[in-house]
Amino acid sequence: MNEAIRPGPETPPQAAGLPQLSVIVPTFNERDNVTTLLRQLETALTGVLWEVIFVDDNSPDGTWEVVRALARQDSRVRCIRRIGRRGLSGACIEGILASSAPCAAVIDADLQHDETQLPKMLALLQGGQADLVVGSRYIEGGSADSFNKQRAGASALATGVAKRVLRVKIADPMSGFFMIRRDRFEQLAPQLSTQGFKILLDIVATARGKLRIKEIPFTFGSRLHGESKLDSMVALDFLGLVLAKLTGDVVSLRFLMFAMVGSLGLFVHLAVLFVVLKIFDVRFPEAQACGAVLAMTSNFILNNFLTYRDQRLKGFAILRGLLLFYLVCSVGLFANVGVAFSVYDQEPVWWLAGAAGALMGVVWNYAMSGLFVWRKR
Ligand code: GDD
Ligand code: MN
């Protein structure tokens, strides 16, 4: 079980200085924290061959420039600057996959995690006692005292849901501080979601008990500079992740959100239809068209803010995206009606035909939106 964790006797001489540990640091607007973190890693990891990979989502505060400058003085430092993408999980995945050290750790840039635990975590992996070591706030000796009441409540709730619904056994699946064998990670990587915040939960849930996990306590500190990027939207991401894992990844997080937004669009449509028909006394076809356009518009806005938060269109691209979205949805409507008709033809059950048409519509809209409206840059 302990293969390839330590360099063996057959290791060629040029491998002598290769890192045993790769520390992955996701960053977004952390320019005032990265230098301190690097110094602290240096101190904590004396005697270990290590490297650090900062994964920055093109921070407006220029974090990547600071990291780049550090990297020019220290070959252990690397910087991945991602453009047109956002997301903590995706950044961590990309960072781990960019390394080739046998062990990879993920740690926040804002000094809230405890880098002095890294050697202990590494020893557990190298000793073969575990495949994954989690820095835990919720076991004896750990704490999250810096949390306010609201944040502590949310964290406890999410932890409870994860444990009960996804049958995750560890005490702190919401932690963002962990170390994993890269080969194990590599096996799971294709099934992980790049969206959202909860990379550790995703890893543990996806592994379905196949990883040997150890938890070690740490104290979650307070942030020195800058601010947290956790907003109320991460609750949605979390919910989506739980549902996706429950359905064995048949439905993706994004698809679920897209479908939820779509159902909301139905309400918008009906509400507009009602108002225009009853209050403005417009004829039915015009009222129906009005409802459809407004529902598509609100769907577009919601999708741009929620479903594709990490690829949000901005400025002029919004207009272009909106027009494309109208186009996609109009074709989707034809697909919807077409399928509904042919099902009804075979089996004249109104709700079955209606549901089949709606499903066809949402699948079409989703697939085409991903291709044309919010396409990956
Ligand atoms: N590349 C990238 N892209 N990095 C990001 C992004 C992003 O979209 N969003 C946040 N980060 C980075 C931050 O710069 C920071 O280094 C780290 O991810 C954690 O983000 P914070 O904004 O500091 O989050 P937090 O302190 O509220 O959340 C922490 O606590 C959670 C547990 O309650 C994180 O450690 C989470 O991972 C953890 O689950
Ligand atoms: Mn933080």
Automatic annotation (TrEMBL):
It is found in: Membrane. It holds the Pfam family GtrA_DPMS_TM. GO terms for cellular component: membrane. Keywords: Glycosyltransferase, Membrane, Transferase, Transmembrane, Transmembrane helix. It comes from the Bacteria. Residues 258-374 form the GtrA/DPMS transmembrane domain. The chain crosses the membrane at residues 255-280, 286-306, 318-344, 350-374. GO terms for molecular function: dolichyl-phosphate beta-D-mannosyltransferase activity. Residues 22-187 form the Glycosyltransferase 2-like domain. GO terms for biological process: glycolipid biosynthetic process; polysaccharide biosynthetic process. This is Dolichol-phosphate mannosyltransferase.
